[in-house]
Amino acid sequence: MKALVKFCNNYQLKLVSDPTLESHDDVLVKIKTSAICRTDQYVAQGLIDCEDNRVLGHEASGTVISIGNEVNSISIDDQVIINPMKACYRCDDCLKQDYHHCSNIQFMGVDYDGTFAEYVVCPANQVYRFSDLSFEQAAYTEPIAATLAVVYSSIHDHKEASIAVVGSGRIAQLTFQILARSGYTNVQLIGLENLQKQTSEGAKFDYVVESISTPNTATEDLFSCIRLLRTAGTLILKSRNPHPVQFPTMELIKRRITIESVYYAPFDEAIHFIENNLDLIDSLIGRSYPIEDHALAFHTANQSEANKTFFIFK
Q1: Where are the alpha helices (DSSP H) in the chain?
Q2: pLDDT tens digits for range 98-149
Q3: Fold of 154-261
């Protein structure tokens, strides 16, 4: 099959062997569409550790074409969304069935082969059936789950709290929209171009959601996020910077600032959000390209954060 793989801090299109079921509870999915994410770009560039020849990609939907003999939750021909996180089923979180917070999570397209390919194999409990969505809408589940995680943070029961979402990219915009559509009444989006101005004007918030989303996040930008907080406020880390960053420890302690990180909301909740907010999802869907046009697709994804770029497979 054709697959886009990591190779020498870049990526290349290769012919690789078709995957086969590895376990009695696996499913084989024919990929219909897979979106380009910043994580895929970081992996290809060597900013996230990953072995060469790993198939990239983790935001995808497709059709099940084969199932293991112990699979009874999914059927052949089901249209499915793929959850890229493979839990260990042994850690404390897994034993509480809180699988999406697994301490030993393996991530598709980084730790095992991903979805920039014609086919992918994964455990049946990592796929979710859908019927009333397009394949592109369905493939948006992973970034929605990642963004919806903010709602499952300590913000959850504070609908009237003052909240600033800091960032200029698509994920920052999406975070702002999700909070607004989830009933939070005092949310402000602050772009990086306005961050210093907001800080100098003395704006103060109960929560600041950091969504800067760049591998070159300036320490000063994080300091500014902290300065936007009221005393005893909470900084929520949302973006996944692959590099270490510094924090002003003394200021955090003196002002009793809480730092909280978020990862994913449950995928079934993300699907429910998509089904009820199709206008938002459709506004974020950009161009689609065959995998052979990977260079143009990545160029398009790098040119603009406004819309999601997809690979399509016949």
Answers
A1: 38-44, 92-95, 135-139, 141-148, 170-181, 192-200, 219-227, 249-254, 267-276, 278-284, 294-303
A2: 887 888 999 999 999 999 999 999 999 999 999 999 999 999 999 999 999 9
A3: Rossmann fold (3.40.50)
Distance of CA 152 to the CA centre of its chain: 15
- Rounded CA gap, 199 and 213, in Å? 19
CA distances (Å), origin 211, targets 39, 101, 166, 200: 14, 20, 6, 20
The secondary structure of residue 159, as a DSSP letter, is: T
CATH number of 2-146+265-312: 3.90.180.10
**Ranges of CATH 3.40.50.720 domains, the chain:** 154-261
At 173, which amino acid appears? Answer: Q
Distance CA 14, CA 5 (A): 7
Q: CATH 3.90.180.10 region(s) of the chain?
A: 2-146+265-312
CA-based torsion, 201, 168, 243, 261: positive or negative: positive
User: What is the reported pTM?
Assistant: 0.91
The candidate with the shortest Cα–Cα distance to 197, out of 234, 172, 166, is 166
> What six digits make up the tokens of 165?
């979402």
